[in-house]
Write a structure and sequence with these properties.
5% of the residues lie in helices and 44% in strands. It is built from two helices and 26 strands. It has helices at 12-21, 24-31; strands at 34-40, 43-45, 53-58, 62-72, 85-90, 95-98, 107-116, 122-133, 164-168, 193-194, 201-203, 208-211, 214-225, 231-235, 237-239, 248-250, 254-260, 267-274, 281-286, 293-298, 303-308, 318-325, 330-334, 337-341, 351-360, 375-385.
Length: 386
């Protein structure tokens, strides 16, 4: 608990009088403009402890006495995330805070960042909704049908004789550095952001979180401006490029993921490959403005198709998607069934890094986001068979 008196509870005249009594240093702090660039989570599961992450910047450098994340339930009761930071230096370049984890009961909450100036006054930052779902209604990825077994009946790959050579089921959090990188990709012209291909992406590793063995990718408006002049959205990306393992798929491999397709306008999730300015095979791309359609593409030796199925592909629907990188044909599988073969393949020497991400459309080819509500996508696992 931190709040006994706040500026919102003081009358205009009283606030002005109080300001006149502040020492000069405190007046400077009160005059400083603090902007909240991002705040997570936007969703939690009841009973599952989760940390809050807050990124802020100031119009000029100063030291905040306290920085933290507040939560209020529907009745206005304080249920703040624990572990406030003390004596935090906040500058125009920004500062990031991660709270200690806490669990909340199911329900609707308000979440917001806050800071305390050197004079002891508290300042609340913009609020947004935090939804805590009942544990009984959370997705149960492992219980849904797995891909059809291989002809030999020996595994999860539809290709006979293959076994898992690399995987992540997100049960231990994100293995940053060793397995995944999330702050840059050579597929993005500027490394951490990309106005190309009519995207709004600005990468932030904290936009990928895990809970109950599921990775959640979050995209939300940021303060960054892209070279295109458009406002960027921070968003999550996982790539094996630049990681300690440096894992690459090769000719003959089968890669598979299971994702819950997003519903937010402008969402553009994908599982794909990239290397040396090319090497792109899109296991899938999805846009909610085509709610029942997956885009499947080989951009090395061009071949592509759309897969439409209202029963398997829809916003909020969990779907399993796999790709076999054959030398003479790339084959795509949805929920264990082959849906397309391009007849071109990747050749015998193909190798490339994996990317799983949530991009944002800028509006030229597909609808751009409307409003500022965060957009999310979930992933159960990524596996590669050989």
């Amino acid at each position: 608990m931190r709040l006994s008196v706040s500026p919102a509870r003081v009358g205009v005249a009283g606030a002005a009088a109080a300001l006149l009594l502040l020492p000069l240093a405190n007046r400077a702090a009160a005059a400083t403009s603090v902007t909240q660039d991002r705040l997570t989570p936007t969703a939690m599961t009841a009973g599952v402890a989760t940390s809050a992450q807050l990124t802020v910047r100031a119009s000029s450098c100063f030291t905040a006495k306290t920085l933290g994340v507040g939560v209020r339930d529907a009745a206005g009761k304080n249920l703040d995330f624990p572990g406030n930071a003390s004596n935090v230096r906040i500058c125009p370049s920004g500062a990031r805070f991660t709270s200690a984890p806490r669990a909340l009961p199911a329900g609707a909450y308000t979440i917001f960042g806050f800071w305390q100036d050197s004079g002891g006054a508290w300042h609340s930052l913009p609020k947004h909704r935090l939804t805590v779902a009942s544990g009984s209604t959370a997705p149960a990825p492992k219980a849904t049908p797995a891909p059809a077994p291989s002809p030999s009946g020996g595994g999860g790959s539809p290709i006979a004789g293959q076994s898992v050579v690399w995987s992540d089921d997100f049960s231990g959090g994100i293995a940053w550095g060793s397995k995944w990188v999330g702050d840059k990709s050579s597929s993005y012209r500027y490394g951490n952001h990309n106005p190309d291909d009519n995207k709004l992406d600005w990468l932030d590793p904290s936009d990928v979180t895990t809970s109950n063995g599921v990775a959640t990718f979050t995209a939300q408006p940021s303060s960054h401006t892209l070279e295109s002049g458009k406002q960027a959205w921070t968003t999550g990306l996982l790539t094996t490029e630049g990681s300690g393992e440096g894992f690459q798929v090769k000719t003959g491999d089968y890669a598979e993921t299971r994702v819950e397709l997003p519903s937010g306008t402008g969402a553009w999730p994908a599982l794909w490959t990239w290397k040396d300015g090319n090497g792109e095979i899109d296991s899938f791309e999805y846009h909610p403005d085509n709610p029942n359609l997956l885009e499947l593409s080989n951009r090395i030796t061009p071949g592509s198709d759309d897969y439409a199925n209202s029963g398997a592909v829809a916003p909020g629907q969990w779907v399993t998607i796999g790709t076999y990188y054959g030398a003479n044909s790339v084959d795509w599988y949805v929920n264990g069934q082959k849906v397309y073969s391009d007849g071109h393949g990747v050749g015998s020497a193909f190798s490339a890094y994996l990317i799983l991400n949530l991009s944002l459309s800028a509006g030229q080819y597909h609808s751009a986001p409307t409003g500022s509500t965060p957009i999310t996508m979930q992933a159960d696992y990524v596996k590669v068979y050989r």
